[in-house]
Write a structure and sequence with these properties.
Chain lengths: ~120, ~110
């Protein structure tokens, strides 16, 4: 059974970089899947941030593309998210998830709350 | 503003049938991309409920069903039960974004 778990700081200062890691267990990060990040603002709906597949191909939500980087570390079976120049609008629960080519997000992490505040 | 449009809330008495609509456009649902549905309980991650428009993962009761028509899709819950109270989200692929899009979510209340 594939399991995903997010980790990273729960508090980030404005203008700094938000960095999160998703550790994958029960499956290889190098498999033919898409590894995604999704966020949920407090009390709001879900927003797709982006995904990486084949360890190096990335697609990002156009609204976030200029500030976001997703990368894979195959040695640790992890993938990561960096969001630069954060503001309060980036305060959200961040989820990592696994999907495929046009297939649903079948596996999700538990989610981690990141608050942007000084 | 979500790319896919859902009603903010629906409600029904126990045993009744409720439906949740999900309206997209020609760049997502209308383009033929599959629609998936998720259920989210408070404080937990979303969980896949329906995939590929109308398929249920193992363990999902047949009280839940999905359908699509044109640029829209629907989730139906029959025999509504108290434990069905949750937020429900639709999701598809959008070719303009080259990525996934979600509906704004619908809160189901069992009266």
């Amino acid at each position: 059974q594939v399991q995903l778990l997010e980790s990273g700081p729960g508090l980030v200062k404005p203008s700094q970089t938000l960095s999160l890691t998703c550790t994958v267990s029960g499956g290889s990060i190098s498999s033919a899947n898409y590894w995604s990040w999704i966020r949920q603002h407090p009390g709001k709906g879900l927003e797709w941030i982006g995904y990486i597949f084949s360890t190096e191909n990335t697609y990002y939500n156009p609204s976030l593309e200029s500030r976001v980087t997703i990368a894979v570390d195959t040695s640790k079976n992890q993938f990561s998210l960096k969001v630069r120049s954060v503001t309060g609008a980036d305060t959200a629960v961040y989820y990592c998830a696994r999907n495929g080519d046009f297939t649903p997000f079948e596996y999700w992490g538990l989610g981690t709350l990141v608050t942007v505040s000084s | 503003q979500s790319v896919l449009t859902q009603p903010p809330s629906v409600s029904g008495a126990p045993g009744q049938r409720v439906t949740i609509s999900c309206t997209g456009s020609s760049s997502n649902i209308g383009a033929g991309y599959d629609v998936h549905w998720y259920r989210q309980l408070p404080g937990t991650a979303p969980k896949l409920l329906i995939y590929g428009d109308s398929n249920r993962p193992s363990g999902v009761p047949d009280r839940f069903s999905g359908s699509r028509s044109g640029s829209s899709a629907s989730l139906a819950i029959t025999g509504l039960q108290p434990e069905d109270e949750a937020d429900y989200y639709c999701q598809s692929f959008d070719r303009t974004m080259s990525g996934s899009v979600f509906g704004g979510g619908t809160k189901v209340t069992v009266l």
